[in-house]
Amino acid sequence: MKRLSLRVNGTLQRYDGPPFTRLIDVLREDWGLTGTKEGCGEGECGACTVLLDGKPVNSCLIPVCHAAGRKVQTVEALGTPGKLAALQEAFLTEGGAQCGICTPGMLMTAWAYVKKGGSDDPGAIRRELAGNLCRCTGYQHIVNSVASAVRKQRRSRAAKRR
Amino acid sequence: MAHVVGTSARRKEGPEKLSGHARYVDDYRIPGCLHGVTVRAPIARGRILGIARDPAFDWDGVVIATAEDIPGPNVVTLIEPDQPLLAAGEVRHAQEPVALVAHADRSRAYQAAAHLKVEYESLQPVIDPAQSEQVFKSFLIERGDVVAGLAAGDLVVEGTYTVPHQEHAYIENNAAAAWFEADGTLVVLASMQCPYYVHKALKPLFDLPAHKVRIVQAVTGGGFGGKEEYPNMIAGHAALLAKKAGRPVKIVYDRHEDMLATTKRHPARIRHRTAVKRDGTLVAQDVDVLMDGGAYLTLSPVVLSRGTLHATGPYDCPNVRIRSRVVATHTPPNGAFRGFGAPQTLFAAELHMERIAEAIGADPVALRRKNLVREGSTLAVGQVLRESVGALQALDECAKRSGFRDKRREYARWNWRKDQPTWKGIGLAVVHHGSGFTGSGETHLASRAAVALTREGAIVVLAASTEFGQGTNTMFSQVTADTLGLPYDWITVETPDTSKVPDSGPTVASRTCMVVGRLVRQAALDLKAALVAEHGRVPHTRAHLREAALTLCGDAAERRFEREYEKPSGMAWDDATYRGDAYEAYSYAAVAVDLEIDKATWEVTVHRVTSVQDIGTTVNPLLAEGQVIGGTAQALGYALLESPVYKDGVMLNAQLTNYVIPTSLDTPEMDVAFVPAPYSNGPFGAKGVGELPMDGPPPAVAAAVHDATGLWITDLPILPERLARAERERKAPRNRK
């Protein structure tokens, strides 16, 4: 079998199993990146969202061969419990995580949105997050979390320009 | 020391969840673990004639378990011993587990399950609860004289209401892993709400003494009641396979199986006959409730009990009769779901109030104000509400914040103009929800919780109450910190593990804060007293606390202060007559829903929900608001979107693709406020919050739909097609024979 290589969270990972194995299974089972969660296995819930070349995708719908030679980012690329990234801090402060199972996927979608300079308008954030289901929060605190992260990034970018 | 109760202290386990470090069942890599798969019956009712292995399949490495392998009685212990762990002889519902297989390779396990051939003889199932002749449980609650009362009003308003199944749709499916230690101890690691329920169920199944069964909660990705009793089943399955295999076994359902096979909210039909005076005074309420329990009794009697006790709505009416029953059908057992029977009966009660308001031409707020419970009111069971009744304050604040009366006038003008593309409406509802188990339930549970000081000076809360998103860990830490006058960060909460924590009862019934939180506070007060006795005060530095810990612990690793539930003085309940103080305290909510309906597509868009509640003291405003907003979203799904489709007792849309739960775009902005009426026996005055938000939104939605369109939609969910059909029937009523 042809060996595939992917850049996962900045590290080159090699894979030589069946090429049509789902990306989520390779991440979780071959590489132990269990931060990415499976909620439905059919691309509805978004719990398995990872970034593929910076764009959010459902890793349960992507065969690993499709990601070959590309950049994959998972929740493990953000901060650790002792040193959370700003986006994770915002979720903690604003109540964006409850049971936590949708959280890694939600963070990936939100991360891409914040990085591309999305606005803090609640309506825009809701449209962006519509592919990630959450059954606990009713979304409002997630929207607040993302808006807060957007504003914080804006402030820090403005401070750097000065 | 600054107080932490009343502040939005950060979620205790938040950093682990936010970094992907929190471990859910499927995240554990267990050496030598097999994957378990369940073989399920495709028919709703029948007899099992035989189970045979397909000779063409390679069975190498496959472990098979059937009912014959169960060491003890084939019963999942809950209320009645009627549900088998694996069907033996008889099938009573589609998707009933019949056999189990396991293999080291997951896909191989699924293939093996498909090649295990089970032969059935089909029998005619009973699917319609109205046709069922098997009653699991019934109640009759009476106050005054309902027959005389019905004759004494100025008019009688009647209505029939129905609500469907609802799927919990926690994002983490049910999952459990099990193994046997070298000394024969059975260990289960599962996604669950109630470790001691699983403990109680597995002891007899495996014929093991209490100390040989250890149940550990993994981080749990949502529950909502769906992981109250079902984990007994999946844990039993994993354990049985583990016993047969002599290796650890993990069972993780996929979404389809979870939706097909696990519990749902009980569907119900509720009838109301209410006598009322022209001035709005309620004279008599006659309520009839029918619930569909599914194939086994499971928790149906208690779901029916709570539904029955909430069936009149939060009103003081002198003549009441509530007749209720839950019956058996050949469908998967219905079970616990946030609200536990109350959302069903409160939908009917509150929408019926709207119809009463229309019938007598009364303002819906004024009608409710006239009849709402207040301090001194008496409920149908004879309970006198002595304190902590914030229903009126919630209603007034909700009407004010939502601009209810102004919006009604504004929307009436909008709807009167025929050229508008939409109708607009606003509706409201007021609900109550009893905190804790019903009646003497808490006394029977005799829950225990503890606070320990370790030799190292750590303060640890020990309780079986699980964290599955609501904020149990955070709330316990806040209560303990303020009781001791120590920083929040100094408090840790032990993982619910039956080998480490006492039995605090199940994590259900809006009881964790009010009931178990009180035990934690009492235990912390005992620790405080011991520290004061020993040192004159609670040490305020880590170093001093460590010193104090050494003296308090003596030779032991920790000094534990444990408390057991004591019934508050003055509370009385009679199980035989079902009269007395049904709940220690009730929380209250008033909800206004503001929506718009497209005249062409009948699509309903909710623009805003205003939710005002009395949950007593708000221990953590951010978490409480999270409960309210999340519960409201789930209730809006129940009201408008979630439409389970059944054929011959099988759910046809058991997928998130076509069983639609609200997305961020379906969920409106919510305005949440609290009007606390503290409860003297709650920790720092707190009552329950978890289930309350599920109760109010559905009737408020239906009231708003009526305000917008003039249509009474009495059956949930209010789908566009249901609205369109109601409009067609209004224009051209069908000829009914």
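qc> Chain A has five helices and five strands.
qc> done
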